[in-house]
Every structure is written in structure tokens, then in C-alpha cells.
Amino acid sequence: MRATERSPMLGLRMFRGRESDLGRTSLPNRSMGGVAEMTKKILCLCPTYDRPQRIVEHAIANFRWQHARDDCYLYIHDDSGLAPNIMGDGWCITSGEIREPSLPAKYDSMVERAESLFPEWDAIAVWDDDDLYLPWHLATAQTLLESHGWVHPSYVWSDHDGIANVESAAGRFHGSLVVR
After folding, report:
1. CB 148 within 8 Å of CB 39
2. Distance between CA atoms of residues 81 and 16, nearest Å
3. Predicted confidence (pLDDT) per residue in 38-67, tens digit
4. Contacts of 14 (CB under 8 A, 6+ apart)
5. pTM of the full structure
6. I want to staple 150 with a disulfide (CB 3.0 to 4.6 A). Which of 45, 89, 173, 179 is the partner?
7. Under a CB-based contact definition with an 8 Å cutoff, are residues 12 and 109 in contact?
8. Which stretches of 5-125 are DSSP H helices?
């Protein structure tokens, strides 16, 4: 399925509320005809703003660590205009000086730009640049998306201060959300 066949911006704007508003796995499956389809490609979106190079390298390293990496893309966009534009193996960094008014608007803008960079994808994952992703994160999401319209774990691993922490994902938009 191409990105243009989806509803506008995949309904990402609806994820602004509390975790209880998300309904966990009770959202309807977004596949055609209500029958689950295999999620083949996941587009991981990582918005940043003038982050230190080590943080961006951390996001890429976590992506390259994934078991399902051949079935996924990582798109990092820095809207400070300071980051270099780089294309790697299944990932890219772009930079621009247009600052979006909100994080949901930034995700919407990234989805629109991603179509020209990565034309084939079936689901979107929020990829936070200072979270830690275990190697099976995306492979597990692919499996769960076969029977659910989205995946949002209860806990996330983060590395805000160079120390690994386990934190509740409750109420967090970014907490490793994957949506088809």
C-alpha cells in the first residue's frame, strides 16, 4: 500500500490526548475489509531540533540494531537547519529551517516528505532520539500489527542523561507508538 492511499496524515492528530483516550489496542484494524494484513515496511519518524550529534548517532545505532531492519526505514528530520542532509542504508537525515508550530504538525510534515524518500511503507513508528529500542522492537510491532491497528507499549527505555532508565509510556505520544 502506498502512503497516498491512506487517510490524511494517518489520523496522527487524534493522539494528542491522555493515554486513556488512546483506547490501547481497541482501535479498529486499518487494513482493507477488516481483514488483517501483514505489515511489511515500517517508517520510523524521528523529529529533532538542533540535537547533539551523539543523540542523532544514538537514534541511528538503535535502528541498525533492529532484527527487522531490512523491513524498515528511519527518517530523522531536524528543523533547525543546522544538521547535514545524509542518506544511509535504510535511513536518512534531512534538515530545514521551517519550524513547525507543534509536534503533531511536525509529524504530519514528515509524513508528507517521507513519500518521496521512502515510497513504500505500511505503518509509522515514532522513533525518539533518546529512547533505547531493544533489537526485537520493530519485529514485535510488525507481528502485533497483523491483528491490531496500532501498538503502544506500557514502558519505554530512555537514555536522557547517558543512563538507561525504564519509564512509563503512559500519556506519552512518542512512547514507541506504531500505527498502521
Report:
1. no
2. 26
3. 567 999 999 998 888 888 898 999 999 999
4. none
5. 0.74
6. 179
7. no
8. 19-22, 53-64, 103-117
